Amino acid sequence: MANKKSKATSVDIAYHAGVSQATVSRVLRGSPLVNAETRQRVLDAVQALNYKVDRRASSLRTQRAGTLALLLFEDPTEDESHINPFFLSMLGSITRACARNGHDLLVSFQQLSDDWHADYEDSMKADGLILLGYGDYVDYRPKLEKLVAQGTHFVRWGAVLAGQPGVSIGCDNFAGGRMVAEHLVGRGRRRIAFLGYASSHYPEFFERYRGCDALLREAGLSADPTLQVDALSSEEEGYQAAKALLAREVAFDAVFAASDLIAIGAIRALNEHGLRVPEDIAVVGFDDIAMARFATPPLTTVIQDTGRAGELLVETLLRLVRDQPAESMMLPAKLVVRKSSGA
Amino acid sequence: MANKKSKATSVDIAYHAGVSQATVSRVLRGSPLVNAETRQRVLDAVQALNYKVDRRASSLRTQRAGTLALLLFEDPTEDESHINPFFLSMLGSITRACARNGHDLLVSFQQLSDDWHADYEDSMKADGLILLGYGDYVDYRPKLEKLVAQGTHFVRWGAVLAGQPGVSIGCDNFAGGRMVAEHLVGRGRRRIAFLGYASSHYPEFFERYRGCDALLREAGLSADPTLQVDALSSEEEGYQAAKALLAREVAFDAVFAASDLIAIGAIRALNEHGLRVPEDIAVVGFDDIAMARFATPPLTTVIQDTGRAGELLVETLLRLVRDQPAESMMLPAKLVVRKSSGA
DNA sequence: CTGAAAGCGCTTACAG
DNA sequence: CTGAAAGCGCTTACAG
């Protein structure tokens, strides 16, 4: 019985199979330079001794770790204990994509203030980095530039814009925002408030805003700047933003929240204010987190295909690691209509 | 500028600092056998060359990976794309606890049917395993026994019962269930339905059921077996279970759902049936997932302290890895009262 | 306090 | 097709 104290090595297998240790290694790496019969003997021994290749040793030799690292970073201001559910859903799909590609995934939560840029790959624990998180892009960008300068392999999830350092995968936020506005306008809404940051500090939110704005202009409805309130992606900030909006006493008949969490907080504030959703105010979110369909009323929102996103992040990073060409990509956005925007 | 092609090694540092490579290693390991001035010279060189110890090499030498693996396993029957939010919250706290203890975390999602028992530690990628997941314990138990037989270091999150293989950390499910019943009885409810498996196949749910049952007996209210309906932890199963309960046409004035997800599904079924929560039926869940407070009405539930749980899982596993004594532990449960159980 | 040397378990030219 | 040998980058007795 295999036991911690006596783990089998390739030498044990070699002895057992009556071949050299080098041959064992060849078999296990799938080298074609091995006679079929010899191969079988080795494989039998591997079976019998429940042998597994020591990944540290092989990685030390090949200089390839077979491991990717996922850095989930959070704004230090946010509540430590609550991770954005959208990212957790991405985490699931990234993990699966790694497994499918025969790689392991190291996970780490980082504060945006940490020196995360220079750790995992430098200590040879990972071949490349996947960066996931909202945060102030203006603060964040120099770190990306440092990664590029260091030659670190990485992909990030986020807005896909011209002139960004490195390779990015993201949702078509502009199209998503546009769809939301189109939907609301189609339902007769005319004064659409936007809850979420709308500046280059938060490019994903900004693109959603710009998409919405573009459609409103096309429809001849000028966007009113008093209808935009800053908010990060949390229920609490959504609640506060909606309160702030109500305090301005400007008329509006719809809310486009930059994320589902913001939308859920906004609905709470609206209800407290005696406004009904969707009768008085239509509300639309973004992300389609698990909670969205269980909100009251169920939330109309924009789906970001996290399954495909995880796959694309992993595959793109692996191309980078292998020095193959890779480029930024945008995934299509898709509107899901639920009650919160219904007439 | 440090560049992928010319990563500094301890030999480079040695040359730079004018010492032997062995001394560099001593400094970096914090050995006391180094002269203060020599140490400083080495540290300066480390700084200058942005050197990081290669974890693979050091791990190969010391036979300690500095890495833990988290295996999140799911019932193959469950929807692949949705991970239980409760586990995601645990994931966050486990990651942080690992970081605090200077370890990395490898994450993997496993189907309960996979041969997960013999992988991570065998290929020396991790020093130990954290097992997280619901699943049929009767199927699951032989795998745990195999892990024990192999001498694998592991801790699992789950029910803490006598005679289990290995070390377990879990919430005091019995006390939690008891609290729920006490709360409901205190609010005048007499016929409490339980939605969730109540058998040794799902020991966590079973303990919750037994705690509830115990209090009902103490209160002189015999538990009615027609008020229990099987369900796994998902919104859909909760919905179906509540429908099945309603179809039985037995009277009940409260629902104790074995998890928040089940509770949320049950509320949907109750509402469809024209029953108001909490006026007609009080509903209580378990877990306090992020969604619970945003449900309509906000859900009374039992908090499991995931922060402390993650810490305890990691610390206990690390004790095991170091061959220090470690034992199973139960975390206290805590009731949070929200509207769903209010009169 | 410091250095020379062995060795962790692999992979892969090199030679046959 | 196979083996002997070097070497990946560390850590740690051993000797001084």
How much helix is in the residues of chain A? 40-55%
CATH class of the largest domain in chain A: Alpha Beta
The 3D shape of chain A can be described as elongated
Q: In angstroms, what is the radius of gyration of chain A?
A: 25 Å
Oligomer: homodimer
Word description of this protein:
Chains A, B: Residues 8-62 form the HTH lacI-type domain. Chains A, B: Pfam families: LacI (PF00356), Peripla_BP_3 (PF13377). 2 copies of one chain form a homodimer. Chain A is of the alpha/beta class and 343 residues long. The first copy, chain A, folds into 3 domains: 4-53, lambda repressor-like DNA-binding domains (434 Repressor (Amino-terminal Domain), Orthogonal Bundle), CATH 1.10.260.40; 67-171 and 305-331, Rossmann fold (3-Layer(aba) Sandwich), CATH 3.40.50.2300; 173-304 and 336-341, 3-Layer(aba) Sandwich (Rossmann fold). Chain A is built from 11 helices and 12 strands. In chain A, helix 8 links the parallel strand 6 (192-195) and strand 7 (228-229). In chain A, helix 1 (10-17) packs across helix 3 (36-49), helix 5 crosses helix 11 (306-321) and helix 7 (173-186) packs across helix 8 (203-218). The longest helix of chain A has 16 residues, at 85-100. Chain A starts with 9 loop residues before the first helix and ends in a 7-residue tail after the last strand. The model of chain A is unreliable at 1-5 (pLDDT under 50). Chains A and B meet through helix 4, helix 5 and strand 2 of A and helix 4, helix 5 and strand 2 of B. The first copy, chain A, binds a DNA duplex (16 and 16 nucleotides) through helix 2 and helix 4.
